[in-house]
Amino acid sequence: MGKTGEESGPSPGGRLTPAMAQYQSIKAQYPGTILLFHIGDFYETFGRDAETISRELDITLTSRSRDGEGNRIPLAGVPCHAVDGYIARLLAKGYRVAVCDQVENSRDAKGLVNREVVRVITPGTAIDESMLSSPAAQYVMGVLPGEKSNVGLAFLDITTGEFFCIPASLDPAGHDLLTFVFRYHPRECVIPASEVRRLEPLLGNRVVLTPLEDSACERQAGEDLLREHFGVSDLSDLGIGEDRLLLGAAAMVLGYAKETQKAGLSHIRTLSVKNPGAHLIMDAITLRNLEILEGVRSGGVEGTLFSTMDQSVTPMGRRMLRDWIALPLADVDAINRRLDAVEYLARDSLLRAELRGLLKQCSDVERIGGRIAYGNAGPRDLRALAGTLALLPEIRATLRQSGEKEPSAVSEASRLLVECGDIVDLIGSAIVDDPPAVARNGGMIRSGFDATLDSYRQATVSGKEWIAALQQKERERTGIKSLKIGYNSVFGYYIEVTRSNLHLVPEEYTRKQTTSGGERYVLPELTEKEAQIAHAEERLLALEIALYQRLIETLKGRMEEFCSVARGSALLDVYAALAESSAKYGYCRPELDESQEILIREGRHPVVERSLRGHFVPNDARIDSRDEQILIITGANMAGKSTYMRSIALIVVMAQTGSFVPASYARIGMVDRIFTRVGAFDDLASGQSTFMVEMLELANILNNVTPRSLAVLDEIGRGTSTLDGYCIARAVLEFLHGKGSRGARTLFATHFHELVGVEEELSRVRNYHFAVRDTGSEVIFLRKIIPGATDRSYGIHVAALAGVPEKVTQRAEALMKEQVSGGGGGGPGVKRYTQMLLVDSPLPEPRTDPLIEELKIIDPDSLSPREALQRLYDLREALKKRGER
User: Fold this and answer.
1) How many Cα atoms sit within 13 Å of 404 on the Cβ side?
2) Which of 93, 121, 149 is the C-terminal boundary of a domain?
3) Does 669 share its domain with 768?
């Protein structure tokens, strides 16, 4: 569950100051949040909220007046100008924050200043740039279970307006839900309060959960909300059918976003459905095992398929590419449209370089549009937007320069780059070239944009010029050369005179303040001019902010165009990025069809080959449900079995994403799902052993595999006894083969060498192994897969390479020889392990080489050059005689 700020402050029965009574009243309306209460230049927190932020943000905890029971009230605050950074840190820790602002000027207030909560910021609904940790999508996820096992899921990225639904199922282990959490990494998940008991055990450790009152999930209210927001009379017009769970989940998420942001969110313009049948599905286990989006050990993006493929130059393109990789297509025509675009840009390196150079200058239009819609876009956002829009004609002209006809996908992306020259001109005329980050302090509207503003600005400038002229006049009149006119927020303008010149001060000066160096005075005419300047500055700031807000409202009406530009830019960026990978790494265009065959020539692992210093050994692969449905892969540890199997799966993922692939040739019969069972992970939190986890994953595969699936099974049955493991592995092979001539294509790596005999019994099983050159004194892994089986794993050799003590590996060698020869448990040539390991028996002395011994006794410093040369010739001759030249 998400962390919350707890109730704080004095007891209801105690006497409260007006400010604390106001605080308590507002705090009661926002349970489960940390309330930041605006007082002067600070946002203050009280009670346990104060204790929480003091602990989490490492800031000083103080206290204020006592409550009605005589207890000191804990107090902690953060400066207003730096509040966004502190909020971002609280969000990262899973807290929800309510920002309570002064909504009237303290000068105009009669008594207590009116305050209201202007926004509630949660981990999934942060929209300010300073609170976003990365350009990646920031989803809030909605989960609405049905009466049976069906569940509606909705995902909303409030920073960009992306909004979609997905139908799912709710199995006891929550496998389907966890897949979507792993795929989209939502920052927050909203659920009905009545479902907390069922969903918290499944999701609570993986995402911040926010329960909503069941009234917020009521069907009719939710459907009315969707109709109103999207401006439709019939929900079927949204294009997501009549699925009540999907509509309910979407309404729940949208309602939550509107409630927290307290805004209309006009940039959320579409609601779509991701149909699982249109995509290659990979569950959370497969995404993890293949390291598609996250590294298994690091948990980061480095060393993943995404990081290898990501050559994007815009945040929009990076988000789109990640989405494509996480959910590849399953339609041949749609994939080929993407491949046509990639090939077009891969062939023309000059066009690609020019396009990428222009795209690199583009700002994150999606997120800027989101901030415009919300109303908190800064002046620098608008300049960045204008800069990007100004590039669009050049981008389109660059695409037209190519002599070849554009593929349809490139043309469609180009058409999305709608001309917005009037917006460029408007922003250029309104906003200064180097604006401030925020608008609240003014200074962003260009001179000449508004005549009234210019007159106010001139009034303040002339007023300050008058002050400077007064200073010079008073110096001359009084004879005080060091006299100066200063300003501070407490006293306003003042005349400062040093102590040594006090005897020259005129009688009409009124003393205001004594300082360590002299006195400060005022004059009636100075006070009068100060009031005029202050009034002009107030009017200037108010008008400048009003003009800026008017500009924001104008831009809100162009959101559809900005969304179009963002999508077009992202598409071109992804096509160019995939083309760059192809050209950079020597990839080929894959062929895709509806067959049951996967044929790869000289395939490579796209990630491993990037990390190798030496040459990656490519391998072929052919898997066909008719003839070679199941490949049993044997061979030495470290020979490359796991890398080989993963490379095939990753090539399929890349091909169906619309990317070129690391091979000299690839033909991919469409895959609907990829399943993997790789590695061993204990799930101690739920009391599940390594073997239980293995069997649960295996059960999921066998229960859901289809004729169009690809299964990657590595070491099935290794987590239990040898006999049990072999029997399970054999039964799995027979089950997959028994699916018929259209059974799932399967890669099956094993060290149960007895399984290789299955090839003779099951017609669509083939044995392959990785070649090893064993010279007797050295084992060389050739990394090449060849037909046939092997009966050796070279595990002892790998143990030695890993640094296992020599005593252990020698003992293992001896035991292996004994087992191979059919010995019992302690033949005459084999010591018992108590002698070998528990008793500190010495290792056999290594053989000495006489030439090496001779080298050891040579003292080079005692030899003349002639003698040294002669000894070198002698040693060379000795080596020749031994045949070791």
Assistant:
1) 13
2) 121
3) yes
Q: Which domain holds residue 519?
A: 451-533
Q: How many domains does the chain have?
A: 7
Domain CATH number, residue 521: 1.10.1420.10
- CA distances to 331, 490, 740 from 343, in Å: 18, 68, 38
- pLDDT of 13 over the 70 cut: no
Q: Answer whether residue 739 is part of any domain.
A: yes
Burial 409-422 (b: 16+ CB within 10 A, else e): bbeebbebbeebee
Considering 55, 87, 121, which residue would you say is the last residue of a domain? Answer: 121
**Minimal CA–CA distance to 477: which of 498, 502, 505?**
505
Other CB atoms within a 10 A radius of the CB of residue 268 amount to: 23
* 576-622 per-position pLDDT tens digit: 999 999 999 999 999 999 999 999 999 999 999 988 777 888 999 99
Select from 490, 525, 498, 537 the least CA-distant residue to 514. 498
Q: Residue 884 and residue 870: Cα distance in Å, rounded? A: 19
Q: What is the pLDDT of residue 482?
A: 92
Structural domain contains residue 748: yes
777 shares a domain with 652: yes
The C-alpha atoms of residue 1 and residue 18 are separated, in whole angstroms, by 34
Contact criterion met (CB below 8 Å) for 195 and 224: no
| Residue 491: its H or E element | none
> Of 680, 676, 678, whose CA–CA distance to 689 is shortest?
680
Sequential DSSP letters for 280-345? -EE-HHHHHHTTSSS-TTT-SSTTSHHHHH----SHHHHHHHHHHHHS-B--HHHHHHHHHHHHHH
In sequence order, the 6+-apart residues with CB closer than 8 A to the CB of 80 are 38, 41, 42, 43
User: Is the same domain home to 395 and 462?
Assistant: no
Residue 223: inside a domain: yes
Rounded Cα–Cα distance for residues 281 and 674 (Å): 7
Centre a 10 Å sphere on the Cβ of residue 526 and count the other Cβ atoms it contains: 21
**Whether residues 194 and 246 fall in one domain:** yes
**Residue type at position 11:** S
- Report the run of H or E that residue 378 belongs to, with start and end: none
In angstroms, the CA 28 to CA 35 distance is 10
Closest by alpha carbon to 879, among 858, 852, 848, 846? 852
Query: What's the gap between Cα 796 and its chain centre?
Result: 41
What's at 293, amino acid-wise? L
Same domain flag for 715 and 794: yes
The verdict on 111 and 174 lying in the same domain is no
Q: Are residues 104 and 58 in the same domain?
A: yes
Q: Are residues 575 and 598 in the same domain?
A: no
Q: What is the pTM of this model?
A: 0.81
Beta strands in 91-201 (DSSP E): 97-102, 115-121, 139-145, 150-157, 162-169, 188-192
pLDDT tens digits, one per residue of 262-283 = 888 888 888 988 888 899 999 9
CA 194 to chain centre: 31
Buried b (16+ CB within 10 A) or exposed e, 159-170: bbbbbbbbbbeb
User: Which two tokens mark 630?
Assistant: 């199941």
- The DSSP code for 147 is S
Residue type, 656: Q
154 or 146, higher pLDDT: 154
**CA dist 139 → 181, 201, 239, 280, 374 (Å):** 10, 21, 21, 22, 17
For residue 235, give the DSSP letter: G
Other C-beta atoms closer than 10 Å to the C-beta of 267 total: 25
Q: What is the spatial distance between Cα 334 and Cα 231, in angstroms, rounded to a whole number? A: 31
Which CATH number does the domain housing residue 161 bear?
Answer: 3.30.420.110
> Above 70 in pLDDT, residue 819?
no
- Going by C-alpha positions, the residue among 602, 745, 593 that lies closest to residue 668 is 593
Q: Residue 550: inside a domain, yes or no?
A: no
Dmax over CA atoms of the chain, in Å, equals 121
Q: What is the mean pLDDT of residues 320-334?
A: 96
